[in-house]
What we know:
Elements: H1 6-25, E1 35-42, E2 48-55, H2 59-71, H3 73-83, E3 91-96, H4 99-124
Parallel strand pairs: 2-3
Antiparallel strand pairs: 1-2
Helix pairs in contact: 1-3
Amino acid sequence: MRKNSAKNNRINGEVQRALSSIIREVKDPRVSPLTSVTDVFVSPDLKTCKAYISVLGGDDEINGTKKGLDSAKGFVRRELARIVNLRNTPEIEFIMDGSIAYGVDMSKKIDDVMKHDEESRRVRGEEDV
């Protein structure tokens, strides 16, 4: 199976949906309820899986969620095997994804620059174009 084949893309999507529901079932108090699976890459041989996880919150929530998910890998893998019927159930590696937080931060910076630009135009007496 090639890396970017339609079959591999379908498997990635199924595993992502399954992991999203499984993570909500994890009873570890360190795992934040505001956790989402942003992307999943299952290797073509179905041996490994990289799951990109995003957590809304501060560094404490992110680190706690990472530790909680790492300690629940056995449960998550067993549930994944139950939900998704694959030849092999992949070993899961959880990777914290900061892209959503980065996007929110950049959006806030853009808003601040736009507000500052608008205020400087007002001070100089220029009209909005």
